[in-house]
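Cross-check.
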Amino acid sequence: MTEHNLVSIETQSEYSVTTGRRETRIFVKMYVDAVHSGLLADIGDENWRTLCVIAAFMDERGECYPTQELIAHRLGVSRETAGRRIKRLLAYRWQGREVIRAIKERDAGGRWRTTRYTVLPISQLAIFGGEGVAM
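Predicted model, tokenized:
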């Protein structure tokens, strides 16, 4: 059986001849296999949207640092609602495995500084030509 990506994240670089400016744009591309594999049905609408918003900030290692306020704004919900949705997504498992991980980081004084989210390969969000984990 051949394995396929269910979702990929790609970049496109554009150069404007008139302004001389270069712009890089990021796209999330969903394959129909995400539907046929059962991923979309299993993950649900809210978890899927929350995962996509967080993934929109990730780097090539799958890591990102958006605040709950920024996630809430991008989802169009309150910060409290975003916090609940993030918590549910962190608890979600696809085929028994977590799709995203959050690690709270402290500053030198011991105060919470930021949360590092890592979108894991099992999520099938393979960024910049990377590979998801085989299903």
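Confidence is low (pLDDT under 50) at residues 128-135. The first strand starts at residue 7 and ends at 15. Passed to J.P. for a second look.
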